UniProtKB/TrEMBL annotation, chain A:
It comes from Agromyces archimandritae. Transmembrane segments: none annotated. One of its GO terms (cellular component) is plasma membrane. Coiled coil: none annotated. The keyword Transport applies. SUPFAM superfamilies: P-loop containing nucleoside triphosphate hydrolases. Residues 34-280 form the ABC transporter domain. This is ABC transporter ATP-binding protein. SMART domains: AAA. GO terms for molecular function: ATP binding; ATP hydrolysis activity. InterPro entries: AAA+_ATPase, ABC_AA/LPS_Transport, ABC_transporter-like_ATP-bd, ABC_transporter-like_CS, BCA_ABC_TP_C, P-loop_NTPase.
From TrEMBL, chain B:
The keyword Transport applies. PROSITE patterns: ABC_TRANSPORTER_1 (PS00211), ABC_TRANSPORTER_2 (PS50893). InterPro entries: AAA+_ATPase (IPR003593), ABC_transporter-like_ATP-bd (IPR003439), ABC_transporter-like_CS (IPR017871), BCAA_Transport_ATP-bd_LivF (IPR052156), P-loop_NTPase (IPR027417). SMART domains: AAA (SM00382). One of its GO terms (molecular function) is ATP hydrolysis activity. One of its GO terms (biological process) is L-amino acid transport. It comes from the Bacteria. Keywords: Amino-acid transport, ATP-binding, Nucleotide-binding, Transport. It comes from Agromyces archimandritae. Belongs to the ABC transporter superfamily. Pfam families: ABC_tran. The keyword Kinase does not apply. This is ABC transporter ATP-binding protein. The lineage of its organism: Bacteria, Bacillati, Actinomycetota, Actinomycetes, Micrococcales.
TrEMBL record, chain C:
It is a multi-pass membrane protein. Belongs to the binding-protein-dependent transport system permease family. LivHM subfamily. It comes from Agromyces archimandritae. This is Branched-chain amino acid ABC transporter permease. It holds the Pfam family BPD_transp_2. One of its GO terms (molecular function) is transmembrane transporter activity. Keywords: Amino-acid transport, Cell membrane, Membrane, Transmembrane, Transmembrane helix, Transport. One of its GO terms (biological process) is amino acid transport. The chain crosses the membrane at residues 48-71, 194-218, 230-259, 271-292, 319-341, 373-392, 404-433, 445-461. GO terms for cellular component: plasma membrane.
TrEMBL record, chain E:
GO terms for molecular function: branched-chain amino acid transmembrane transporter activity. CDD domains: TM_PBP1_LivM_like (cd06581). This is Branched-chain amino acid ABC transporter permease. It comes from Agromyces archimandritae. Keywords: Cell membrane, Membrane, Transmembrane, Transmembrane helix.
Length: 324, 236, 473, 390, 325
């Protein structure tokens, strides 16, 4: 990693020694914060999630990657109580979460964001943020009518909200309705709001999709800081640069199953992962592939082209069969 | 297509676009990048008649299209993939694709073949409702829907967001292919590197107007642009 | 009680009412024994009506056309002319009048016996309003017949009027009533018929909701509109029925178009939210309803052929020609609409618009045009439902639509908002429930059953029967 | 209080012409609006008669709309009338509506006079004697109807009735009386004011196979009867009551020839109905089709005017003090059957006992009528009825 | 036309028990819809429960009037619970219809003859005023001036109603600027997001339903205080009127509902005064009697126009409008 223009961050050492035994799918962790067993969710004939065993290491940043439709978001939903699995058990900090409603899960310190953002449109950005804080005294019905009981706490929350907003480059929009945010700004708000509660585990569903790369970079530093403060992060992302940059551990899902696990460098070399997800051509210049600029196509580039063509033909055939 | 001195906004008195200029020659592939909230989506929406234009002009083939309703623009061969809410959740994938071809239902079979060629997953699940799709799958549906109509001008708002890396590459290559086939394409992207790699020319939009422009390569290597907009993560 | 007066006058004196010179009423204190006087006390919560003086003309049987025989037969009517008070009655055995049964009235030193006439009637005048004993001479009854219990000799007493009727219905008295099963089947058919017409209106609601998101409370008036137009053309302008209905449907469509063009489209343009739009529809509903009342007033009108007799088809199933035509029409129209919705381009476009109008426009759909078509279609369906409803109830009334609006909505919700087939299923369930539930429930809460079921079903299927859950995340 | 204090005390003072201002709270809109025109015609005709007689009292009317409890027109109408300083309100048609404004009127010291309320609750209402009514009694009508049905040889009767004070009261009275004659009420089903279809009720009633059906209700009868007839019931076997004994004619889509009904009122020598029609036509340009409670409304206004004359005042309390007496409730008045005669007598210092179009009307001290005359009518082939008793 | 009188009788509405009762119910609805986003179309049910709870407690169970009022409140709480448990999980538009249905069920149960002993079925209840009037702190006499002249009982009802309304408005004002209110508004926007932040959405919604319901029930009590309880008043149109009032004033505003109630009744009264008068002097081509019907046509039209031209309500925030769904 070279130094970057936004400045502050220094490449840091990744957390290591998170697991015991082989870094194989479902391997044991030294200090798991989440343990899931036999969690499966079917939609009609489709098995969206079918996880034999999964442990998420505490105090580390874990990336959950996998092709579109692999079941990542669905797994998030299941873990957080937004959806009920058909079978399985899972626990957070040793407490079983089966049947625990979503809000209770969040209160335990496990907060998630949504891939399709959920801004609270007719609340201001600041109010959105303040809502994220937990254990607010003024949220009790009786206390709420006596401002004296909650005013100080509310001020603290507000200060913290402003701080986070500044970091997420949303400070200028604090007084605006969340409805007026751009797509990327909503992503940012979603994530900032989740952090308001100082969760023990934050689960981010594609937090950086649609966020400007320069900003992404500074936010990643923030996440790393949070990790230093002891927070556990589990995130889904398709941006491999980001995964490589901050993830201590990577879990790969495909067709609902965990297909690989391990430190980022190892996993990304895994041929199965490359085939199913990454493609072997992360670093090929598409300008060259598409013939827009002249340059070394290279072996990888040619492969990519071929692959794509094959895939197209195969899929056309398949689609035709389907339609029959 | 030409955009001149465009001003537009949502709230009364607040202009999001403040005199934006953009030109896309026939058959060109234009990439637009910029920070969040710069007005990129607003620009596309303004071009497509979904945001009221307050000043300036938009011309397609020399004719002003300001004030035309979206469906009229579609009739003129302009296609658009919005950034958010870009599928019909309660329609099946198939129906979503049919909607893309609303004005020319006859060509359906042929276009379907073309589109499923790009996103094979979709071809297998034509009967699934789009509302139950994963984020990436939705994005594919959204792209396909716009491609169905075989437009002359294609406006894409972050088409790659949420797609897995392979799919992203596919998507870019396809966009490039489509463009090569003569479709003028304007693409907003946060996956700026990839975008700039394939586009003919790029614009950097900041605070409502075009801060930089140049060929893709120029921007890609411009240290200012890197510092402010591209970041260094992707640079290996 | 002394101040409570009771007017007793002969029927004849009523005729002289407007002649003030003739003293026409005799005032008598009301006998303490007369039962209703209990209610006199001020606190009595039961009834206010005490102490009514009475003029009952009906006592004079001679005035009743139905019994000329009495008038002819001086003997049976004996005494009836000389006294103000009468006992009378009919003796029947298994629904056949018994002639020559001897009836005796005895009391207060007065006693008289008469025989029943060919119609089984008897009548005895008495001099004062007091208690008497009525005795039936059982020997004059046919062989083997006796009067059950002690009614062969019973105490009889006058009420507020000068007549006391005592009928004797002898015989086994097994009344043949409709069996529960037959009633059940009959109501199922009624419920189906009602459900189908509800479905016509419900699909319209569902379409409009499905396309524009508007919960249209004025739909009730669109239903009424159809019926009123059929009335105007079929009755007032006297067109042949088929033509009147056709014109009514066309005008319903025009009405739908006009509402969209004149009201909803401009409001959509203004970018009004769905809740304000809903309130606008409430205002529209109020205004339209009273426009109807302005023109046709508060009474009920009938369409030509309403109230036609039902024909027994098989078993307990009875349907009138109108019922059959109505059910047939509903089914055909509903299937056609369902196909239109799921198969045609415009049908799919309606759902697309419902999901996301901006994206629909971006796909090249002329949103306004599709919405206009939906309004026209919904209005025609509502109009048709109104006409069928006018035959089903029967009657055309200014507020006839409003009273089924909740059922229409319940149907739409039960089936799942925005799904056409759902509206159909929901409507039929609601129709059946409303009709069948009164087999168990008191009829004045007949809608309660249907509404409770609505809530219960939604407890288990919050998205409605055919509705789908949205995914999260 | 009642009409105990002698009327002489007032009539000794100098007599000025009285201007009696009445406000009507009758249904012009809403579900009960079909009751409005006949009642308003009754009021209007009475006012016309009184003013033409020109005998010491002029009546002014402020027309108001009671609406129904659904549209709540009375909410604004009553305050408007009260602020227009009316002396008496005539209305409302429905007991439920009267209840909602009676306290307000009483609070303002204004007399309320209903031509149609039958709810027993008003008898002991805390009304400062300011509530009066000419509505017919359901006890008496129930007995007359019960006797009539029994005399027609019906042994099994079905009843379908409106669930409100009027319907339940009449149904109860009819049931008691009819069963007292040896008949049986085999089915008795109620419906609510808002109901628009009655086939569930009809089906239940018909399942019991009654010989005849008594329909107790109002306008909705033209929907109820066809429901029964199309289910196979004989159209000549219905019995109606004052609320629905209309000249149905073509508004009833099935033949009800031979069916009978009762309604209060003496047999009239002059053509009251024709006069109402003429009046209505002249005032409103439309035909008056129904006469339900027209006579009661007429009598209400006449009684008020007579009370004003007798009291030589138009204050609500003064009117109330005289109403029982002019109705004949004090027992020694001279019988009169029209306003002009009565007014002349009162101006001569005599007591009167007014008997009107709705019957002999004699109030008790609660303001309830204690006498009535009930007519029996039968429908002919044209679905129009004629009186069959005299 | 007597403008003085028209003004007088219209002005009376500024301070009338009906206005106060509607304002209370609309304030409750503001909590439901304006802040919590609950599409409650069953306000008439809450009002009916308030009114009947009050009347039955006094008439059948002989409770003192203040205890009867607490019974009403309790009734509203119980109804909110019964209504909320099955329905608060429903989508907004489903909730609307279910709450209409629930309110109709309530009305029909009060109407049916099954419970005649307690409810007097369709005839409704009356004659429960004594206790409340005995508690009147104002000595007998006439108070006020001009159109606002009242006897002691009328004044007492109004003063009492205004006190209740003031408490309700104050409560809403306090609640909605607290974090509690913030959560509620969050739920209005997207309950899943709020759930993900660890708030018990169901409980908040239930609390809102109960609080608004209590205000509705108190509205019912104030409604019943000066008159009678008749089931036919508690129809869906009552709910519609309350909604109209809410939207007139501004849905998510503290004073909007009270203002809306004023405007609504002043318009109603004004039209009722003006139309027959105009007809009488020949300015309208109809009889005064027909003008009665015209009033409701105009009320409907006025409602449409008001909402069309000021959809956010009189006190509402224009800015919100840009983003409404
Ligand atoms: N409610 C549902 N009904 C039917 N299928 C569903 C539903 N929810 C998810 N699916 C299917 O389950 C699969 C997994 O979806 P999920 O959203 O978990 O994928 P993902 O891994 O998050 O993908 P992406 O990276 O594209 O977001 C997808 O194929 C999706 O179509
Ligand atoms: N509906 C709206 N109403 C008011 N302001 C809006 C609205 N939508 C966007 N904005 C504002 O307009 C500005 C530009 O938004 P736009 O969506 O065009 O940004 P963008 O460049 O596409 O950003 P991103 O990369 O995050 O999608 C932002 O500041 C945003 O807050
Ligand atoms: Mg996902
Ligand atoms: Mg954007």
């Amino acid at each position: 990693m070279s130094s970057n223009a936004t400045g502050s961050s220094v490449p840091r050492a990744k957390s290591t020694g998170l697991h015991t035994g082989d870094a194989a799918p479902g391997c044991k962790k030294v200090d798991p914060i989440i343990v899931a067993d036999h969690v499966a969710r079917h939609f009609g004939g489709l098995t969206a999630v079918d996880v034999e065993h999964l442990e998420i290491p505490r105090g580390a940043i874990t990336a959950l990657i996998g092709p579109n439709g692999a079941g990542k978001t669905t797994l998030f939903n299941l873990l957080c109580g937004f959806d009920r699995p058909n079978t399985g058990s899972w626990s957070f900090n040793g407490t079983s979460l089966a049947g625990v409603p979503a809000y209770r899960v969040a209160r335990m310190g496990m907060v998630r964001t949504f891939q399709l953002t959920k801004a609270l449109s007719l609340l201001t950005v600041l109010e959105n943020m303040k809502l994220g804080a937990t254990k607010q005294r003024g949220e009790h019905l009786w206390a709420s009518v006596i401002p004296a009981l909650w005013r100080t706490q509310d001020r603290e929350i507000e200060a913290r909200a402003h701080e986070l907003l500044a970091r997420f480059k949303l400070d200028a929009k604090a007084a605006d309705y969340a409805a007026s945010l751009s797509g990327g700004q909503r992503k940012l708000l979603e994530m900032a709001r989740a952090l308001m509660g100082r969760p023990e585990l934050v689960m981010l569903d594609e937090p950086m999709a649609g966020v400007n790369p320069a900003l992404t970079q500074s936010l990643l530093d923030h996440i790393l800081e949070l990790k230093d403060e002891g927070m556990t992060v589990l995130f889904v992302e398709h941006d491999m640069h980001m995964v490589r940059h901050i993830a201590d551990w990577v879990v790969v899902m495909a067709e609902g199953r965990i297909v690989a696990e391990g430190p980022p460098e190892t996993v990304m070399q895994d041929q199965a992962v490359i085939d199913a997800y990454l493609g072997s051509h992360q670093d090929v210049d598409l300008g060259v592939v598409t013939g827009r600029i002249s340059g070394e196509l290279g072996e990888a580039g040619e492969e990519l082209l071929e692959e794509i063509e094959e895939a197209v033909e195969a899929s056309i055939e398949e689609a035709e069969e389907e339609n029959k | 297509m030409q955009v001149e001195d465009l001003t537009a906004g949502y709230l009364p008195g607040v202009n999001i676009l403040t005199g934006t200029n953009l030109t896309a020659a026939k058959g060109e592939l234009i990439g637009i990048i910029g920070p969040n909230g710069a007005g990129k989506s607003t620009l596309l929406k303004a071009i497509f008649g979904m945001v009221k234009v307050r000043g300036g002009d938009i011309r397609v083939n020399g004719e002003s299209v300001v004030g035309l309703k979206s469906d009229r623009l579609v009739a003129r061969g302009i296609g658009f993939v919005p950034q958010t809410n870009n599928v019909f959740p309660s329609l099946t994938i198939e129906e979503n694709l049919q909607m893309g071809l609303y004005q020319k239902p006859r060509a359906y079979a042929e276009r379907l073949e073309f589109v499923t060629g790009i996103f094979a997953e979709l071809g297998k699940r034509l009967k699934q409702r789009a509302g139950s799709l994963s984020g990436g799958e939705r994005q594919m549906v959204a792209m396909s829907r716009a491609l169905m109509m075989d437009p002359a001008v294609l406006l894409l708002d972050e088409p790659s967001a949420g797609l897995s890396p392979v799919r992203q590459d596919d998507a870019f290559i396809r966009v490039s292919d489509i463009n090569k086939a003569g479709v003028t394409t304007i693409m907003v992207e946060q996956n700026a590197r990839r975008c700039l790699q394939i586009c003919d020319r790029g614009y950097v939009l900041d605070q409502g107007h075009d801060a930089y422009q140049g060929t893709g390569r120029e921007l890609l290597n411009d240290p200012k642009v890197i510092g402010l907009y591209l970041g260094t993560l992707g640079q290996d | 009680m002394g101040h409570n007066r009771h007017v007793l006058s002969t029927p004849k004196s009523i005729g002289k009412l407007r002649n003030p010179n003739v003293p026409r009423a005799v005032r008598l204190p009301l006998g303490g024994a007369v039962e209703p006087t209990q209610a006199v006390t001020r606190r009595s919560p039961a009834r206010w009506l005490i102490l009514l003086g009475a003029l009952l003309a009906a006592l004079t049987l001679s005035g009743i056309a139905a019994s000329p025989a009495v008038a002819d037969d001086g003997s049976t009517a004996s005494g009836s002319e000389e006294y103000d008070y009468h006992f009378s009655g009919i003796v029947k055995l298994d629904d056949k009048p018994l002639e020559g049964v001897a009836i005796t009235i005895d009391g207060g030193g007065f006693k008289e016996t008469v025989d029943t006439d060919v119609e089984g009637r008897w009548k005895i005048g008495v001099p004062e309003k007091a208690k008497y004993t009525l005795t039936v001479d059982e020997s004059t009854l046919p062989k083997g017949i006796i009067v059950e219990g002690d009614s062969a000799s019973q105490e009889v007493e006058f009420g507020l009027t000068q007549t006391k009727v005592v009928n004797l219905f002898l015989g086994e008295g097994v009344r043949e009533t409709t069996s529960f099963a037959d009633q059940f089947v009959e109501r199922i058919f009624n419920g189906l018929n009602f459900g189908l017409l509800l479905a016509l209106a419900a699909i319209g609601v569902s379409l409009i909701f499905g396309t524009t998101g508007l919960t249209n409370f004025a739909h009730a008036e669109m239903v009424t509109f159809g019926a009123i137009m059929a009335l105007v053309f079929g009755v007032i302008l006297n067109l042949p029925l088929w033509l009147a209905i056709l014109v009514a449907l066309i005008l319903s469509g025009v009405f739908g178009w006009a509402m969209d063009a004149g009201l909803w489209r401009p409001l959509r343009r203004k970018g009004l939210g769905l809740i304000p739009l809903m309130i606008v529809s409430i205002g529209l509903s109020l205004a339209l309803r009273y426009v109807f009342q302005f023109f046709i007033g508060g009474k009920t009108y009938q369409l030509p052929g309403a109230g036609a007799a039902k024909i027994e088809l098989f078993g307990p199933i009875k349907l009138s020609v109108i019922d059959m035509v109505s059910m047939g029409t509903s089914i055909v129209v509903l299937i056609a609409v369902a196909i239109w919705l799921t198969r045609t381009r415009i049908g799919k476009a309606t759902r697309a618009i419902s999901d996301n109008p901006a994206l629909a426009a971006a796909s090249g759909i002329d949103v306004d045009r599709v919405i206009r078509i939906v309004w026209i279609l919904a209005a025609v369906l509502a109009g048709l439902a109104g006409i069928l409803w006018a035959y089903f109830r029967p009657g055309v009334k200014w507020d006839m639509g409003m009273h089924i609006l909740l059922l229409i909505f319940a149907a739409v919700i039960l089936g799942g908002l925005g799904t056409a087939f759902g509206a159909l299923v929901g409507a039929i369930i609601v129709g059946l429930l409303v009709e069948i539930s009164t087999l168990w429930l008191p009829p004045d809460i007949k809608y309660v059953g249907a509404l409770v079921v609505l809530i219960v079903i939604l407890m288990f299927r919050p998205q409605g029967i055919l509705g789908r859950r949205e995914r999260l995340g | 209080a009642s009409g105990e204090q002698p009327a002489e005390s007032e009539s000794q003072g100098p007599r000025e012409d009285q201007t009696l201002k009445i406000g009507t709270v009758l249904p012009q809109t809403g579900a009960l609006s079909f009751l409005g025109p006949p009642e308003e015609a009754g009021v209007g005709l009475a006012v016309q008669d009184i003013n033409e007689a020109d005998l010491g009292v002029t009546v002014e009317v402020e027309w108001g709309d009671s609406g129904d409890p659904d549209n709540k027109a009375y909410e604004t109408t009553v305050p408007r009338l009260l602020s227009a300083d009316v002396n008496a309100l005539v209305g409302a048609a429905a007991s439920g509506v009267t209840k909602l404004f009676l306290d307000q009127a009483v609070g303002a010291g204004v007399l309320t006079f209903s031509p149609a309320n039958t709810s027993p609750d008003f008898t002991d209402w805390d009304d400062d004697n300011l509530y009066w009514r000419t509505a017919p009694s359901d006890l008496l009508q129930g007995e007359v109807l019960g006797n009539q049905i029994a005399e027609d040889g019906v042994s099994n009767l079905g009843i379908i009735y409106l669930n409100d004070a009027y319907g339940t009261g009449l149904a109860k009275s009819l049931t008691e009386n009819f069963e007292g004659t040896g008949g049986t009420v085999v089915a008795s089903e109620s419906y609510n004011a808002g109901d628009t279809s009655f086939d569930a009720q009809a089906s239940t009633v018909l399942a019991a196979k009654p010989d005849a059906v008594a329909v107790i209700g109002f306008e909705e009868t033209s929907t109820i009867v066809p429901t029964f007839v199309s289910a196979g019931f004989d159209g000549s076997k219905f019995y109606f009551v004052d609320g629905n004994l209309k000249q149905w004619g073509g508004d009833m889509p099935v033949s009800i020839a031979g069916s009978k009904g009762t309604t209060p009122g003496p047999k009239l020598s002059d053509d009251f109905q024709q006069r109402l029609k003429d009046y209505w036509k002249a005032e409103n340009g439309s035909e008056l089709e129904d006469f339900t409670y027209a006579a009661e409304a007429y009598d209400a206004v006449v009684l008020l005017a007579l009370a004003a004359l007798a009291a030589n005042s138009t204050e609500g309390a003064d009117l109330a003090a005289q109403l029982q007496e002019v109705s004949g409730g004090s027992g020694d008045g001279e019988k009169v059957d029209n306003f002009a005669d009565a007014a002349k007598l009162i101006l001569d210092g005599k007591k009167v006992d007014y008997d009107g179009y709705s019957g002999p009307i004699t109030f008790d001290e609660n303001g309830d009528p204690t006498e009535a005359a009930i007519g029996v009518y039968e429908f002919g082939d044209d679905n129009l009825h004629t009186r069959i008793n005299d | 036309m007597d403008w003085g009188q028209i003004f007088n009788s219209t002005a009376g509405w500024l301070f009338s028990p009906t206005t106060i009762a509607y304002a209370l119910a609309a304030t409750g609805l503001a909590v439901h819809f304006g802040y919590a986003g609950l599409l409650n179309f069953g306000m008439a049910g809450f009002m009916a429960i308030g009114a009947y709870g009050y009347a039955i407690s006094i008439l059948t169970f002989g409770l003192p009037w203040w205890a009867a009022m607490f019974v009403s409140i309790l009734g509203a709480v119980v109804f909110a619970l019964i209504l909320g448990i099955p329905t608060l999980r429903l989508r907004a538009d489903y909730l609307a219809i279910v709450t209409i249905a629930a309110a109709e069920i309530v009305r029909l149960l009060f109407t049916t003859q099954v419970f005649d002993e307690y409810t007097n079925s369709a005839d409704g209840l009356s004659g429960y005023h004594q206790g409340f009037r005995d508690a009147n702190p104002f000595p007998e006499g006439t108070y006020g001036f001009g159109p606002w002249t009242y006897n002691q009982n009328e004044l007492w009802v109004r003063v009492f109603g205004v006190i209740l309304l003031a408490i309700a408005v104050l409560a809403v004002w306090l609640l909605m600027r607290s974090p509690w209110g913030r959560v509620l508004k969050g739920i209005r926007e997207d309950e899943d997001a709020v759930r993900a932040l660890g708030k018990n959405v169901f409980s908040f919604k239930m609390q809102a339903l109960i609080i608004g319901g209590i205000m509705g029930a108190l509205g019912g009590v104030v409604f019943a205080l000066p008159s009678a309880v008749v089931p036919a008043t508690y129809t869906t149109s009552l709910t519609f009127f309350i909604w109209t009032i809410l939207l007139l004033g501004g849905a998510a505003t503290v004073f909007g509902p009270a203002l809306g109630a004023l405007i609504f009744w002043v318009i109603m009264a004004f039209l009722d005064n003006v139309l027959p008068a105009m007809a009488a002097v020949g300015w309208l081509p109809m009889t005064p009697i027909q003008a009665g019907t015209l009033r409701f046509i105009l009320v409907g039209v006025a409602l449409m126009l008001l909402v069309a031209f000021r959809p956010q309500g009189i006190l509402g925030n224009k800015r919100e409008l840009t983003f409404v769904k």
